[in-house]
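Note to self: user wants both folds in one dump. Writing first protein now.
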Amino acid sequence: MTPPAAENEAGLVTATYRRHYDIALDDGEHVACVLKGRSLQIAVGDRVEIQRTDDGGAIEAVNARRNLIYRSDAFKEKLLAANVTQIAGVVAPDLSLDEELINRWMIAAEAADCRFLLFANKTDLPEFAELRTLSRRTPRWVMRSSSSPPSGKAHRRCRGSRTSIRCLSASPAWASRR
């Protein structure tokens, strides 16, 4: 007589490595999983159902997504994150500022019904004044200035209980799907 099949367990995808995934189960345990079949596409932030195996688990199903953030070019697209509530861009005055890229980040955030934050670092450089002027011309920017990345209370205040994705000014094209 074969033993009854174990029930699926719910979890959150916390990392992806090609066809291998780290899943944080609802009870806090972390399980290394593989994708069962090839028809599912998985992104960090997805809620999934897994079946335990001898060496970890297998992802059986992906729950409905609130939204999906991906990057694409003329040839392909890559899933980046699912169920995101906030997109944070990071720019620096010593790099050539690509306003079009920042606008794409903002459009992706709006399309995914996410809050958008723009962090500018290296406030001690003279070129920082140009960033501040640009942020005043673009009222949708939320400008956070610091010489170093936010940490401690400042970081928690910006992040709160949101699920975030960070974009660096050298990043490729971004888009969003609901």
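First done. Writing the second protein, which came from a different request thread.
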Amino acid sequence: MKIATVGRGNIGGGLADRWERAGHEVTRLGKDGGDVSDADVVLIAVPGNATADALEKVQGIEGKTVIDATNLFGIEPPPGFASNAEFIKSKTNGPTVKSFNLNFARPRWGGSYGEMEDFARAVDDQRWPRLHALRGYVDEDRANLLHQDKHLDEALAASDRACAQGDAADFLTTRARIKMARGDSAGAIADLDRADAILPGDVLAVLPLRAWARARTGDWVLAGTDLLTVLRVDPTNSDAREIFDTVVRGLVYQGWVIFKGGARDRALRIYDLAANLAPTDADVLQRREWVVIGKEGGDPLQAIANTEAAVKASPDDFRAVQQLDYLLSRQREFQRVLLLWDDYLSRHPDDGPAHMERASTLHLLGRDGDARAEAAKACDLGVSEGCVRARVLSVQR
């Protein structure tokens, strides 16, 4: 399906990434607008008070099916309309549906703590056992406020009481934040591992915080893995972006130390992770090239001959083919490299990293249209580096 997204924030950008990975063709529009004539569906995901301005800059939306993901918290809809959805429908004269409006909403207690506790105690635990955790939200609310006021000992005690009401991802995440503030990164990780088991893959709270905690302990690979999971779904996540450079630099350092220690394959896995996080980072790409070439970095012709022999002996060894690619590319033998990947992919058509390497070769040959399609294929197969490269090549068209 062809989908156009208007807005590049948490909802617009996050859904665009998911839809692309699901195989849909997505056109991303920002504040400058654009043409959606080819789209089957249009998502409007801009601030509620910016809807009218956004629609003015979008062409080809007449008659389109539109998903309205805007919110009107504390502001009025456009004059003469009961909602943004009604306003959008008046502009498009097509089907309009409202969705994704509560994705980032979270209920919070109101009133005094006494009223909160009375309400929680009044719940019939026998009839509604899952509501037993309501009592924990009283102490979680206390813990958050105490944390904000930097009363960390009292905040931890309150969050301990909340967690004693039962395993709830909210309580564990709150306690992990307090433990982080107290310098207990290992304790925070233990809580976040439990939270992840309860609410797997929570990219809004659990995984960004666990990436922070893992980075603090110097576990760059696990920190990078959590960070990549978050950014694939929510590229603008503020917590993830705040530690992005630190984690990438940590991976670069750790990969180099491991390579120098003789563990080339492990170092390559670390640099592959770094490249998926930062596919345009020159330091990451250069060091990965050095590690791929490894001990064959001496006489270039002899290195090529040695590696060709290795590929001939093991034609399905991705690392051997990749090494020959990099050696040949240094000699600008791009056509030979392309034939190399054509042969490999004829037997391994679902190898995402191989499609990524082929995309790079096509780009070096000046075939950017083919390179874009190949990078998109790598993206579809789960290679984040391919998603970024496909977008860059689309912009350069």
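Dump finished. Worth passing along: The domain at 297-395 is CATH 1.25.40.10 (Serine Threonine Protein Phosphatase 5, Tetratricopeptide repeat).
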